[in-house]
Predict the structure.
Amino acid sequence: MLKRLNPSQWTPACAAHLLNRAGFGGPPAEVQALYALGLNRAVETMLAGSEDDDLFPPPALTEPKEMYDALRAARELPDEAAKRAAVQKSRREQGDQIRLTRVWWLDRMRYTLHPLREKMALFWHGHFATGVDKVKNAYLMWQQNETFRARALGSFRYLAKEVSRDPAMMRYLDLQQSNRQKPNENFARELMELFLLGEGVRYSEQDIKESARAFTGYRIDQERGAFVFQRQMFDPSDKTFMGKTGPFDGDAIIDIILDQPESSAFIAKKLWVYFGSDDPSPALVQSLAAQLRGSNYDVRTTLKEIFLSEEFYSPRVVRKQIKSPIQWIVQTSRVLEAPLPSQQALDASMTQLGQVLFAPPNVKGWEGGRAWISSSTLLFRYNLAGYIVSGKAPALDGFRRASGSVSIPLEKIAPADLRGNPEALCDTISNRLFNARLEDEERTRLITYLRERGGKIDDPSLRDFLYLMMSTPDYQLT
Amino acid sequence: MNEPTFHTRRKFIRTGVLGGAMAWTLPVFLEKTFFALDAAAADAAVQTMTGKDSPILVVLQLAGGNDGLNTVVPISDDAYYKARPRIGIAAGNTLKLNDNIGLNSRLTSLRGLYDSGDLALIQGVGYPNPNRSHFRSTDIWQTATDADKFDRHGWLGRYFDSCCEGEDPSVGVSVGRETPLAFSASKPKGITLARPEQFRFIAESASNPGATEDLFREMNGMDSSSPDENSGGSVQSLGAAGGMVGGDTMDYLRRTALDAQVSSDKILEITRKVRSSANYPGSQLANSLSLVSRLIAGGMSTRVYYVSQGGYDTHSNQSNSHDRLMGDLDAALGAFVADLKAQGNFDRVMLMTFSEFGRRVTENNSGGTDHGAAAPMFVLGGGVKPGIYGKQPSLTELSGGDLAYNVDFRSVYATVLDNWMKAPSEKVLRQKFQTMAFA
């Protein structure tokens, strides 16, 4: 067990931190409401969330059956050119549909009543990384996303098995092409290296070859977009895997791997890095790992342990994490109480910032941490902040006048009675953006800047002020 | 060819695109650079100013594990055709280099460079105890460590650390959005950009552009209280109260912000003036190489450029996809070489390809290949000593089921460092590796 935070140490800053990390942040009123619950109830509230499925009807996507029929019809077209045109049309539609699904998910993150569930769905998407570039099917990507959502805080053991039967993943790692004659090693390798154990831990090249034979017979029913097991493709003979011998199937392999203590440590550490900080101590990881094993890989139990711990609220953790691009986008929208930018602007931003949903760079997912920040992406973050608060389309890729502008409730962010008081205005806004008071030197600079605007701060000056505060290294942290 | 018209970089930066007189004070390390440059300028006026004197290295990563055997095909080896009944390339469909090997038929430009004496092919490159994980093996190539050792710094980063003291951040330029591990250094250098026209802060001020711009620069470390690079980077002035205390991550952000500011003015200026003098195809790699060539033409003092081409993880149905990758690679390189020749810069540029591993000898049931080990590398440029180096690994005497290496990739790095970059390879690689004769 990790040392718990004493409930008397619970402050509004702690509540803001919990909301930022277990969710995507929120405006001052939301922070205040969470703070008022006290530590234990605040954590319970984040873990429980509310059902909000009815708020987010599924995106309009071509269902597998329809797509299957369309492609079959296309194949039977007499004329090559017509055939090509039909295939291209389907490809274009798929492109449109995955863009739609991205915005659907971002919108859900922005307005959900259960932010931790979306945050975990994003974690699993990065962990069991699957890319539409190879899957080439928006429905299958969305279906996987729904699995991550439904199992977000449940059993990791169960989720791992479910992912091995997930059609998008099967396509992504060629599992549906693997058979007893020539097993494809792609999935087996990544299962151990990236999903369950970590690179080179406890397994050998021979273990990869043996376990690849266990994951044979996995097929996709294209008409239903669902997993089917084809026994005649499965290799039922004995496999010797991690020192055990038997006629293992895929699930048995996953169970053997999860029995390794390294496996629980691997997942525990990754959860801490995602929610807490980059370099957890080995003792902390071991403690979380024991929790995970003891609960038979129940994720909710481990998250509760993290969010109640003293370490989670320590200066080593608070405001030390670089926002992921998705976090930056959603959190910005939430703290400014503004709608998300238009689909066009979101598309361009995800690309330029290096995190396109449903298109991780590879099966390892996003590297995260400092890798989010290069000179190029940092400048883009600044320019995106400018776009959002100024309402003007910048001369950036994918941004045109048609991108529209984001409407910011300036009266709410800076009520009239603060407009003539630079100190109070500066503190109010920095509390909203950073959940902290600025360091003195910067605060003085910003107040001087406001003073020089003269008497009452008007809207254009206020927009500039927000822009400046968001175009800083500080704003990249949460 | 377009020459930038500035005289010194001090003037150049001070009159950047962000408008007339810049009111901010230069960080100390930049001042030092300019003084050093001014001194050097007395000797070799234009040369130093335009960066026209030093050799340039371009590193091209083929990400995903390039299938070496279908890149340089062992056409006289029956074992190759036996192992690859579906995806093997017939001898007649290759560009024969000799009786034993032929290049993939899409590599026509490389074939031309081989004929003109500008290409070195290094066969059988790898390292002991090869790792078949994309990520780990890429890290090994990028850090140049032994397979069982881990390092936070990259081989190019260690080169920046030991040989580029006092240079400005753009001594290394990576084209893309992520900074490669190879650039990681104890005193970070190197900038990363995807598109030059977006590589700037857009001051869309609604009220007072000048004041907003000034404050922006102050808030991003472009003033006298900014970190002095030679102090090792701790930001003393920020350790105040209020929960905003930085630490390493904050240092990193501030430094990146500063590097971006300094470099963006310069890069934008160059890319506005310099146009490509060759027709590049539309691929992403071609765009990257076109940008590199413009930056070279514009006189950037960059020593190392880093570009990459992805898609090489060909586990299934690889025949078409691998050929297409080869075609994209070759077309981009062909245009790049033509461009450099037109600029008169071909002799001072060396380009080196690498991939984290080759692929398995035997094709899999999906018409693809799984992760393997040793593979060939290409090195090209006007200064290359042409030819075929290393040996084609045996397809029957395998090591751990895969091709055995006979050239350690760090020997290739050592050759590039010692003979081309004039940098002490032993210091950078922290081991002595045998150099080769291609440079």
Summary: The mean pLDDT of chain B is 82. The two ends of chain B are 27 Å apart (CA to CA).
